[in-house]
Amino acid sequence: MSSMIRSIPFALAMLLAAGLARAETFAFGGVNRTYTLMRPAKTPAPLVLVLHGNGQQGTDMITRTSWPAVVKREQIAAVFPDGLNRAWADLRGDSNRAGRVPPKGTDDTAFLTALIAKLIKDGIADPKHIYVTGVSNGGAMTMTLVCAHADMFAAAGSVIMNLTSTMTAACKPSRPVPFLMMNGTADPLVAYLGGRGVSRFAVPDVMSTAKTMEFWRRANGCDTGNSASIDLPNINQDDDSTVTRIESRCPQGADVVLYRINGGGHRMPGSFADARFVRLVNMLLGPQNRDIDGAEVIWAFFKNFALP
């Protein structure tokens, strides 16, 4: 254990040493898939599936977000799986993505649903309170899971990602799933207004955030227009961004909400820095908003919903 702790971030090492997190392996499709699990003392509990971005691992979502604090305080379970080659096989396909790609033939939809089924069978996860969220590539994988297995999730949240035409053509949710989005208007990788972002690493040909919101509103039986736009307090005036919450007129239990990060980049809003070299990352990905905390906002949304 001591040699492993020296090779991983201090925050994660402390969680592992304290028994609050466990690195585990799940054999699936002839491959040993890895994930980190945080669970409360009392189970079964609500479970949040947290999906990392392209080039990351599940542990990055533990050390760079406040999900561990949320999990500990709320006494819920969270699982942080690792994508093969640090990427997820979402509905976009390899020709419509940027960055790393998973090995050919990877079926992450099957893997992630099997992992959830295992955690339910093991008595860790409450099947009526299963939630999924992810950032960037993880956001695309979140949408992919809702498209294919809407009956499994009580709510979902996508951060810094929009749909593509390929995804919408293949996406046919079997039921309305409460859906939260969180996108930055100055995102250089996933263009808020659609098309291709300004970065040479940009995701190609995404739909706009407005069109993506419209898709989820239609899927949930909502009115396609905004019901209210609420400017949230500009708590941190040094982060070069503000937040507007955009609501929808939806049937009860089928909410669709957007947190528009005005001036925000390809970053998950947070209460602490999500990168070591902040200035460099600000130049490459745009500002990180500090007025809200992404994990806190997402959980506050999720906990309102349960499967019948």
Describe the structure.
The chain has 308 residues and is of the alpha/beta class. The protein has a single domain, classed as Rossmann fold. It is built from ten helices and ten strands. The protein has helices at 2-6, 10-17, 58-63, 67-74, 108-121, 137-149, 165-170, 209-219, 278-285, 294-302, and strands at residues 22-28, 31-38, 45-51, 77-81, 125-135, 155-159, 179-184, 226-231, 242-248, 256-262. It has a ten-stranded mixed sheet, with helices on both faces. Strand 6, helix 7 (165-170) and strand 7 form a beta-alpha-beta unit. It is globular, with a radius of gyration of 18 Å.
- The CATH topology comes to Rossmann fold
Distance between the termini: 42 Å
Number of domains: 1
Strand content: 15-25%
Major β-sheet profile: 10 strands, mixed
* Whole-angstrom Rg: 18 Å
The coarse silhouette is globular
Indicate the low-confidence ranges by residue numbers.
Answer: 1-7
Order of helices and strands: HHEEEHHEHEHEHEHEEEHH
Content-based structural category: alpha/beta
Fourth CATH level, the homologous superfamily: Alpha/Beta hydrolase fold, catalytic domain
- Number of helical regions: 10
Instruction: Please estimate the helix content.
Output: 25-40%
CATH architecture title: 3-Layer(aba) Sandwich
Biggest sheet, spatial arrangement of strands: 1-2-4-3-5-6-7-10-9-8
**Which CATH C-level class is it?**
Alpha Beta
Q: What's the overall average pLDDT, rounded?
A: 93
Number of strands: 10
